[in-house]
Design brief:
Two copies of one chain form a homodimer.
Chain A lengths: L3 E9 L3 E7 L5 E8 L6 H21 L2 E10 L3 E2 L4 E2 L14 H9 L3 E5 H12 L8 E6 L3 E7 L2 E2 L31 H4 L1 H14 L10 H9 L3 H25 L3 E5 L7 H14 L2 H4 L3 E4 L6 H16 L1
């Protein structure tokens, strides 16, 4: 009997690792998540990952399938040619210089490809999600930070030394606040979830209103829907900041689609439409004429689906 | 006798058209320039171009060579697949929707490729100039406007609909001045030659100094070299604006080289070094670790050399 070709996808996060086994077209047959143990040493984190892959190997057997390759998304800058972390990543201290491909391949004898998590996300959305079938796609993930991924001529663009597509660290104000990255006026300082919350708190204080204890961007969007001025103004400010960044992306890349993902984007259509309108006010008309701005479609599964799609595509190209 | 393979390159400008015949490696055997007649109708401009190509055909014969293909750089957005202008371009009024490839090919029966002039310039610098041998290159031309060209994975990046790489229209201030393009805070409003001159005039006025009649960026660089405070401050401001734009380019593209061309860049090494230092203060360290910022090398010949290199490369790939 011929076994079905299957692929493993892992999405390592600061808190959870999501992992799945699926088909080449990114259909997940089984998926799960477990804690990443990101406060532990590197070898413990690897042993944890090995156990997840073994779990997926069992599942593949039950499904009468054969695992052909492994895809892996990790935070941090990744040397894609070597499947290795470049330097460190803030939320997993011991992960510095981790030889992800080397460790997984020597344990499982399966070809493995590793990429940065934002690259995996844009790949997932371009192959199976909101930008399916498009060749030139830019993705922004709005959350605690702002991440970026770029697909050019149907391939993930990684930069000359794997340090490109840091769209969250585009400055929209040469004289703005200092960013954690060392830059000045980065969009992350204006439109990340913490930045939105800071802006909203400031507006509440100025209006002499009390600040809720459990303040999050969800609070802001809920209160704006109820008509509260400070919440509406915060969202309008954020749309101006993001509209500026998107106009830059449009003028620079002229992509077919800009995909907006991450927690803040879950606020939905109205927010995306506001950003889109602000972008069109600022961008060069030919750069946005055919451009669509859309919400990410694959949500929390994007990392797993992208890792599986990447593994399948690279395996086929070997 | 076997004739030598030669290629024609034309660089259409608002005032002059530069034209040359050369070899596949961008070596110019003969070059010249004539007025573009850009105030005339489209058919007159084409007839003018035809005469230049006929002149080059004569030269090719004298050189015992055979012209294999034609490359053409034009201002404006160009549909590279069709070799045709998209819409209009401000300095050649009648050039709207010009079918450049169609007209040249039907007259000369030679395969012709047409690209935007900034794309041709980055191609020239990457193949034969300051970024020779590099695969990921970004070019900025500083002059009356600010143009941009992007080479990614060894190919010119043109955008999903040929409206990308407008690097001069990257906003560095979401709350900045309105740009001619409709945008807000574009780098062109801060660091083009006219923007530098405006900034310098303002500083002179504030210091109650007289404003020279023949003010140009050359005046500013000359006076800065003599130690004049207002001129030095103008250059320092410009370095901050351009450093911000270059930090964005570094974080977004992580190119191997950023090439600075155009009139303002002729100010030389000291100016480039200032911009470079300001970029490094603002960019993410991994994005600039291997990055070089260099002055363009091919100067006024870049358009002809790029058009010839493009024609030769596309001809070989047919």
């Amino acid at each position: 009997m011929k076994l079905k070709d299957l692929y493993v996808g892992l999405d390592l996060g600061g808190t959870f690792t999501k992992y799945a086994v699926g088909t080449a077209d990114g259909f997940l047959l089984y998926h799960n998540k477990k804690r990443s143990m990101s406060d532990k040493g590197q070898s413990e984190i690897f042993n944890n990952i090995f156990a997840l892959i073994e779990e997926l190997q069992e599942k593949a057997k039950e499904l009468q399938g054969e695992i052909k390759a492994i895809g892996f998304g990790s935070p941090g800058a990744i040397n894609f040619d070597e499947g290795r972390l470049i330097g460190s990543t803030p939320n997993i201290k011991s992960w510095t210089d981790a030889d992800i491909r080397g460790n997984i391949e020597s344990k499982f004898n399966l070809p493995t490809w590793v990429d940065n998590d934002a690259n995996v996300m844009v790949f997932a959305e371009a192959r199976q999600g909101a930008a399916k079938g498009e060749k030139n796609v830019t993705a922004l993930t709005l959350g605690t930070g702002i991440g970026g991924g770029v697909l050019i001529n149907n391939q993930v663009y990684r930069g000359d030394h794997f340090a490109g597509s840091e769209l969250g660290h585009m400055s929209i104000n040469f004289n703005g606040p200092r960013c954690d990255c060392g830059g000045i006026g980065c969009i992350e300082q204006y439109a990340s979830a913490p930045a939105m919350e800071r802006n909203y708190e400031k507006k509440l204080s100025m209006a002499k209103k009390s600040i809720p204890n459990d303040l999050s961007t969800v609070t802001i969007f809920d209160r704006a829907a109820e008509g509260e001025k400070e919440a509406i103004d915060t969202i309008d400010d954020t749309a101006i900041y993001l509209g500026t960044a998107l106009a830059n992306i449009a003028n620079i890349f002229n992509p077919a689609v800009i995909v907006i993902g991450g927690g803040v984007s879950a606020a939905g259509e109205v927010f995306i439409d506001k950003i889109d309108a602000e972008m069109r006010r600022r961008a060069m008309p030919p750069s946005v004429r055919h451009l669509r701005v859309v919400a990410a479609k694959l949500g929390n599964s994007a990392g797993m689906i992208g890792a599986i799609s990447l593994a399948a595509e690279m395996y086929a190209k070997r």
